[in-house]
Design goal:
Elements lengths: L3 H20 L10 H27 L4 H19 L9
Helix pairs in contact: 2-3
């Protein structure tokens, strides 16, 4: 079927649109505190971008697993050293 890839692409786009719309639902709640959750969102977005970068590096050179592990470790340590003192879970 020549239109199969077109249908699958359309379906994937519709599911992605639905997921984006559902992700905005917490903003409708009156108890949602945007200032409290902004840092968590930025952290998630940064982690997602880092994961995408490392995944792309991994697919380009799959034999460099040790380098990938070192990149992830250094990034995690740098992020914790920078954000750790400012990150609060609301315990204090």
């Amino acid at each position: 079927m020549p239109y199969r890839i077109l249908f699958e692409s359309l379906l994937a786009g519709l599911l992605a649109s639905l997921a984006c719309g559902l992700g905005a639902l917490p903003l409708l709640s009156k108890r949602f505190n945007a200032s409290r959750h902004t840092g968590i969102g930025y952290g998630f977005a940064g982690g997602l971008m880092m994961a995408a970068s490392v995944y792309n590096f991994d697919t380009a050179r799959p034999h460099h697993v040790a380098i990938k592990r070192e990149i992830i470790t250094r990034f995690a340590r740098a992020a914790w050293n920078f954000l750790g003192p400012h990150f609060s879970l609301g315990h204090g």
